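Data card: per-record layout.
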Amino acid sequence: NPPKPTSAPTAGTATNPPKPTSTPTAGAATNPPKPTNAPTAGTATNPPKPTSTPTAGTATNPPKPTNAPTAGNATNPPKPTSTPDAAQTSNPTSTPEITETPMPTESPEPTETPEPTPSPEPTSTPTPAPTGKLYERVPGIEMPGEKVNGHEYIGTLSIPSLGLKVPVQRNWSYENLSVSPCRYSGSAYADNLAIIAHTYHFGKLSSLALDATITFTDMENNVFRYVVREKNTISPNDANEIAHSGYDLTLVTCTLSGTKRVAVYCERVK
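The structure for this 270-residue chain is written out next.
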């Protein structure tokens, strides 16, 4: 008595082979796999198409040189760069091209150097015109004279209190003394004038009072005024007392006996 088949036999048996499923297993012999929209690159059935950016360095698509290739490779040898500054050796720059050496220009002919314009001499400040009498500015000058009848006179002596007014000659001598009083030494300009005379000109000299006024006028009408300060009797040989009395004006004459000399010393009134 064999077993009866069940209503659901076991799948895969000879009596009831399995039916194919709606989605068979890919790769089986009964239902080979259809190519997909994106097949696996590199298979024999569908060789890979080159991509828009292929892998650099493959045999199928050799790499194109880039805009900035690596310096120093065989494909793109480096261009010579300029010698960098000492402080920038890490980034060499291009070597400048050698420029053509310019031809030397002709030297211009030397032009004559103009002589410098002389600087104007500095103008000195004009010296104001001197004021005052010449004898006052130059007291050492000689007193002017004038000759009359062979005798040279340097001025006129006046003693109002004695009623005396006489010309005075430049140089003394016994001949000149017989004509008029004479200058013995000095000058009215230097305040050391000494005048001598005979008694017939200076006979009243001994009576002259102290503080009496005396004037001397030179040939240019310059008037010098004096006052009597001292009277004295001196030796006839005492010439030093006459020439170096220390007064501005000294008058000398003989005494009435002729053995002594009367000296009158005067101070100039300025």
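Known properties of this structure: Residues 142-269 form a domain with the Sortase; Chain: A; fold (CATH 2.40.260.10). The chain is about 5% helix and 20% strand.

See the next section for split statistics.
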